[in-house]
Amino acid sequence: MQTIQSLRGMNDIKEQDGVLFLYFIENCSLIAKRYGFDFISTPILEQTSLFVRSVGNSSDIVTKEMYRFTDKGENDVCLRPEGTASVVRSFIEKKLDKAGGVHRFYYFGPLFRYERPQKGRLRQFHQFGCETIGESSYMEELNMIDMLTKIFQFFKITFKLHINSLGCQECMPSFKRDLVKTLHTIKLCDDCVKRAITNPIRVFDCKNKDCQNKLKNIAKITDSLCEVCQKDFDSLTNMLDNLDIPYTIDKNLVRGLDYYTKTAFEFISADIGSQDAIAGGGRYDKLVSQLGGKDRSGVGFAIGIERLMPLIKIDKQKKDMWYIATTTDEAIQMLGKIVSSKRKSTCVLTDYKKRSWTKHISNATKKGATHLAIIGQDEFQDGTIWTKNLITKDEKIVTIKEFKELN
């Protein structure tokens, strides 16, 4: 019978990758909590209109990459391709847009985009993200960028920060009109021709080398910012200087989603190959009202977890993990009680089959145990248990009672 394989671009996370994945999530969550963020979890399946309205018809996500289908109730639904829109949808649905105040959320989970799988780019991938809704100050962008630097520093990941300003409703429209006039004089790829109609600044996000060369010297939005946007951007860069966070102003940085306004930022790493973006985000001041809520400011970021996993190194200091076993059938019942009691205070692996001393020692070593405990025939008769610290190599025999209290 033919075996069933996982779908292309959808990988299992298991064994050492599973350890790295949980290590990353646990420590990112701890850092996010220090910055005042609370956990949120949103459904994987959403109405397609949520992403059409938020991400935008000009984005590659909507035009090419969504897992979209009609369900049994004739609803147009899709697997979520990004996290921000879902968080904002939940924010509005719970009427938090009318409650006032500043709301901060962090999340993690799978996302789905149908694109050509390659290193650092999967069809099912995972992100860790943070969203702040209700804060209009540029200081929240600084807060996000500072948090990301703390995360990457914790995991000892080298990075470079690129930032840009995309302007606002005051300065963006006139820039777009002038940009469209310029684009009509340049021969661009088919995708850029479409973008010039739907959201012209997206042409700067084109990966086509020919387009990049032709667009290199034309005016950018950063050169046409209104007084408010320019002041906020200058204040943000000044604060980054004060915090000794190095950055590059990248006038071509527009991000791949239509909802961004004002600040956009991206973290890249030279250690992961051509798909070098490891995190990105920015401000989205009109997204809440765009999705039917009361007008509230927003800013957020997301980290691509799979791209980072090859760079993550766990602290080599092992946590205590016991491997407890027996070499005799007579001790099986006793073994179950001992293991259950020991698990109240530490991690325990076991084997409920009698095996030789050599086999148990080999198993404990392979599974990465730090401590080994075996009940042999003599130990069973004496009411004792043989133990060994697999780090220091110290051995001793103790009573069952003493073992339960042993650290």
Provide a descriptive summary of the structure in words.
- The chain has 407 residues and is an alpha+beta fold.
- It folds into three domains: 15-167 and 225-311, 2-Layer Sandwich (BirA Bifunctional Protein, domain 2), CATH 3.30.930; 172-221, no CATH class; 321-405, Rossmann fold.
- Helix content is 35%, strand content 22%.
- It has 15 helices and 16 strands.
- An eight-stranded mixed beta sheet has the order 1-5-6-11-10-9-7-8, sandwiched between helices. Strands 13-12-14-15-16 form a five-stranded mixed beta sheet, with helices on both faces.
- A hairpin with a 5-residue loop joins strand 15 and strand 16.
- 34% of the residues are buried.
- The mean pLDDT is 91.
Question: Characteristics of this structure?
Answer:
BirA Bifunctional Protein, domain 2; alpha+beta; Rossmann fold; 35% helix; 5-stranded mixed sheet; 16 strands; 407 residues
